[in-house]
Design a protein that fits this description.
CATH topology of the largest domain: PH-domain like
Structural class: alpha+beta
GO molecular function: GTPase activator activity
Organism: Oryctes borbonicus
Keywords: GTPase activation, Repeat
Pfam families: GRAM, RabGAP-TBC
Radius of gyration: 28 Å
Protein name: GTPase activator protein
Helix content: 40-55%
Largest sheet: 7 strands, antiparallel
CATH superfamily of the largest domain: Pleckstrin-homology domain (PH domain)/Phosphotyrosine-binding domain (PTB)
Number of domains: 4
Length: 738
């Protein structure tokens, strides 16, 4: 070791250990504790050395010890282990934390005293960082009836991130029993460079999953997309002739770029659209084009070439692109020869996909509205001429201004599809919707029966849904989705959302937008327990408490906060605002993601804060908000859909002004912030649902008098443990047709 490394370790010991020594009463306890700490530093430094792609010999020895210590089955996979202290009372016990796929374990053995902790991830209610006098700089793990505190980590951030990831995987498996955990063996054969070695193959796998999830979230890509790698480079932006610094991301089906300056420019290029990748000759007179490549697409109408430069390892990138393009072309060839989703088709029915219903059932033209729509179309077409259109347009802050003002009716389908990521799903599943419909129309199911009951309650005032053409299209979209994702099936709010999508979008596009909304933008919202909506209730509660504490206290006292978020979020404000106003919120929702509904909700509450604080009861407050929401008007949006009581509307605020104020006042709420909040509240909500289920089961059986409630709880715990053990290695499967 170098002198610098030694000094760094001693500095860590002084800053993390000295403050804790006052907790011990005996000098020998202090000596034992410090020795253990020094040993842990030495062990950690050893662990940081190179590891093989598969688990190293030393890691396998540790895994064997882990199984023996905690009496766990051999198929329980250890992910990583960390040196830390566990607070037992006021005394820290120095030992080692073991993190596996299903358990968080701790073991310490000091002065003949052994400490063992074994916590199942699916039992965790709270996981967070704390810093109190009693438990300084600690990680808190809470289960029902007990809290555990761990501290003095050498790599606290890494440890906590891994704990969050494992706890979240467990919570998602409780929500959807078919979500399993399978190792990605493709990583073993993956060609990669400059990737740090990991202590175990599973750690590498989980890190890759975390990076892929962040990548998918950033660019709205299909949930199956895996990030292959990323590299610094520049992108030449033809609209201003500049070279923008940023990072290029590469996955199995996409090349993406995001600028270093947030929001400056981003780009998505599907590999299926790439025609040619070629190196550009380096010119000494123009260093900005050093180590450049040109990617040419098959699109002959708009921007067809993208220039990336200053790529440090250009040869390796081109090699990776060649491999991925060869595989992509093989897949496309396979589909064109009858492979892929087209094979799912069974029986042909006499039906055809309908175009946007606004084209089949146009409303009476309002001259001023038509004029405004034409003006917006010209602005958007002008933007497309400069920045390109479709999935591979250059996405800059300029387009966000256009979205805030509202997308013209004629362009909504294409823009919603491009920004939401639904266009990517549709392009990679040709013929899939048609085959799903043909299967769904043959099925008898509870979901189909529920859909049938709600068909005539969906936007009944619109001409399209007073006609068999519109009703049949809505039936096909909802039944096809219920078959695609039986875990969700059908939830009442889906008919409202789907009917509005069908007004502006062709039938198949409406289906893919609904799928993207249910599975990516509002996950777990529409299952039988509406877990996702309850999770987001908790997020709104936290955000309101943080931003408007007085109003939060008032709404909690009135007991109405949960009712607000459910009715607003489930239909993205369609059930509480005039339709022509709510679709502007949906414009921003598909463009910017789920954060928009929180920003708009908080702004509505902020604008009505004074009146709400003076409300005497829940009914008065709910009526106040209902009146305000119905007064959100949009004079420009009454082309394809409109509020029948527009002339009697008590006009409160333009929807464009409401959204602009929401972005201005709550712009710090990012997609990343929402995802962090969702993880936190998902743990809590899932455990509350589990506890309610268990209590109901015990109450229903205890009345027989054969066993006491305590005995029944013990029996239930044994059954639950056995059940979770049996299903923990189930494979992931979502689509019944795959």
């Amino acid at each position: 070791m170098t002198r610098q490394e030694i000094e760094k370790d001693w500095e860590w010991l002084f800053s993390n250990v000295c403050e804790t020594l006052h907790s011990f009463d005996k000098e020998e306890d202090i000596t034992e504790f410090v020795i253990k700490k020094i040993e842990s530093v030495m062990a950690t430094n050893q662990e940081c050395q190179d590891f093989e792609d598969e688990d190293s010999k030393s890691f396998k020895i540790t895994m064997d010890k882990f199984h023996q210590l905690f009496n766990l089955p051999r198929d329980e996979k250890l992910v990583n282990y960390y040196s830390c202290s566990y607070w037992k009372g006021k005394i820290p016990r120095q030992g080692r934390m073991y993190l596996s796929v299903n358990y968080c374990c701790f073991h310490a053995y000091i002065l003949g005293l052994e400490t063992k902790i074994c916590i199942r991830w699916s039992d965790v209610i709270v996981l967070g960082k704390t810093n109190s006098v009693l438990f300084p700089d600690s990680i808190k793990v809470a289960i029902r009836g007990k809290e555990h505190y761990f501290s003095m980590f050498l790599r606290k951030a890494e440890t906590f991130n891994l704990m969050e990831q494992l706890a979240d995987l467990a919570a998602k498996r409780l929500i959807d029993e078919r979500r399993g955990f399978n190792e990605d063996k493709d990583l073993l054969s993956k060609l990669s460079k400059n990737v740090p070695k990991k202590p175990s193959f599973l750690k590498r796998d989980l890190d890759a999953r975390a990076h892929s999830e962040a990548y998918r979230l950033l660019f709205r890509l299909p949930h199956t997309e895996k990030l292959d790698g990323s590299i610094d480079c520049t992108l030449m932006t033809p609209y201003n002739k500049r070279h923008v610094s940023g990072r290029l991301f590469l996955s199995q089906n996409y090349i993406c770029f995001d600028s270093r300056v947030k929001g400056q420019v981003s780009l998505i290029i599907p590999l299926r659209d790439v025609k040619l990748v070629e190196k550009m000759e380096t010119s000494a007179s123009n260093p900005s084009l050093d180590k450049a490549i040109i990617i040419t697409t098959k699109n002959t109408i708009d921007k067809t070439a993208f220039l990336f430069a200053q790529i440090l390892d250009r040869d390796f990138l081109v090699q990776k692109l060649s491999e991925l393009l060869a595989r992509t072309n093989d897949l496309i060839f396979g589909r064109s020869n009858g492979g892929g989703d087209a094979q799912l088709q069974t029986v042909e029915f006499a039906w055809k996909c309908q175009p946007p219903l606004m084209t089949l059932f146009p409303l009476t033209v309002i001259p001023d509205v038509l004029k405004k729509q034409k003006e917006k179309e010209l602005k958007w077409e002008s933007h497309f001429n400069v920045y390109g259109r479709g999935i591979s347009m250059y996405r800059t802050t300029d387009i966000s201004k256009l979205v805030l003002d509202g997308i013209p009716d004629s362009l909504r389908m294409d823009i919603w599809m491009a920004f939401s990521g639904a266009a990517n799903e549709k392009a990679t599943h040709p013929g899939y919707y048609k085959s799903l419909v043909n299967q769904a129309l043959l099925q008898q199911s509870t979901a189909n029966d529920e859909i049938e009951r709600d068909l005539h309650r969906s936007l009944p005032e619109h001409l399209a849904f007073q006609n068999d053409t519109g009703i049949d299209a809505l039936r096909r979209v909802l039944c096809a989705y219920a078959l695609k994702n039986p875990n969700i099936g059908y939830c009442q709010a889906m008919n409202i959302v789907a009917s509005v999508l069908l007004i502006y979008c062709a039938e198949e596009e409406a289906f893919w937008l609904l799928a993207t909304l249910c599975e990516n933008l509002l996950p777990d919202y529409y299952n039988t327990k509406v877990v996702g909506a309850v999770v987001d209730q908790g997020i709104l509660d936290d955000l309101l408490s943080e931003n408007m504490p007085n109003l939060h206290a008032k709404l909690v006292k009135l007991g109405m906060l949960n009712m607000i978020s459910l009715s607003w979020f489930l239909t993205i404000f369609l059930s509480v605002m005039p339709y022509e106003s709510a679709v502007n919120v949906i414009d921003c929702f598909f463009y910017d993601g789920a954060k928009v509904i929180f920003q708009v909700a908080l702004m509505i509450l902020k604008l009505n804060q004074e009146e709400l604080l003076n409300c005497r009861d829940e009914g008065e407050a709910m009526q106040l908000l209902a009146d305000y929401l119905m007064g959100v008007h949009n004079d420009d949006g009454r082309g394809a859909i409109r509020n029948k009581s527009y002339d009697d509307q008590q006009r409160k605020i333009r929807v464009q002004d409401l959204i602009y104020k929401a972005y201005t006042n709550f712009g710090t709420i990012s997609t990343g912030v929402i995802e962090k909040f969702r993880l936190k509240h998902r743990l809590k909500v899932v455990q509350e649902l589990e506890a309610n289920f268990e209590n109901n089961a015990i109450r229903s059986v205890a009345s027989d008098g054969y066993m006491t409630s305590i005995e029944l709880q013990s029996l239930l715990n044994i059954i639950r443990e056995e059940y979770l053990s049996q299903k923990k290695m189930m494979s992931e499967k979502n689509d019944p047709a795959l």
